[in-house]
Design goal:
The relative contact order is 0.21. This protein has a 7-stranded antiparallel β-sheet with strand order 3-2-6-9-10-5-4. A 3-stranded antiparallel β-sheet has the order 1-11-12, with no helix packed on it. A hairpin with a 2-residue loop joins β11 and β12. It is globular and about 55 Å long. It has a single domain, classed as Roll (Pnp Oxidase, Chain A), CATH 2.30.110.10. It has 3 helices and 12 strands; from the N terminus they run αβββββαβαββββββ.
Length: 171
């Protein structure tokens, strides 16, 4: 037997304003912050990165279909995802800006195919793209991991309530 759920307010009906409800709800959901890069170089800040499968090792992210990095996501064969630590808020802000050279002044190295790998991040993975699918107003990109590295553990950079924050263990 399960107990009935108790809520402070009745649930909102699904309406044309559902996008606003979703946006408002997601502001309350803390998400890890990453930078996704492609050969070019091109890249953007993302909170949509997630694991998909361990065998094979698959990861995914979403990018808006009208985002400045969407064309790179559509044509690339590979991408790199960079997991950011609390000290990387400036890097996250830089790659979130439009109309700037996001790589200017950022230390990085190119893999053989030109894929940029950012220096000094908490961890990075590169992946070969195995699936692209338009889902609503976003492009889903799935890739199979082919390389990566981790550095010393640090507090994670998260995005919560419209701001960057640091995640710390509770105990």
């Amino acid at each position: 037997m399960t107990a009935p759920a108790h809520h402070d307010a009745p649930p909102s009906p699904v309406t044309p304003d559902s996008a606003d409800l979703l946006r408002d709800t997601l502001r309350r959901h803390a998400a890890g912050v990453t930078v996704i890069t492609f050969p070019g170089p091109a890249g953007f800040t993302a909170t949509s990165f997630t694991s998909v499968s361990l065998r094979p090792a698959l990861v995914s992210f979403y990018v808006g279909v009208d985002a400045s990095s969407a064309p790179a996501a559509r044509r690339a064969e590979r991408f790199a995802v960079h997991v950011l630590g609390a000290a990387d808020a400036g890097l996250a802000s830089r790659f979130a800006r439009s109309g700037v050279d996001r790589f200017a002044g950022v230390p990085w190295r190119a893999q053989a195919d030109g894929l940029p790998v950012l220096d000094g991040v908490t961890a990075w993975l590169s992946a070969r793209i195995t699936l692209r699918q338009t889902v609503g107003d976003h492009l889903l990109v799935v890739g199979e991991i082919d390389a990566g590295a981790t550095a010393a553990e640090t507090s994670a950079l998260v995005h919560h309530n419209g701001s960057f924050a640091s995640a710390h263990p509770l105990a």
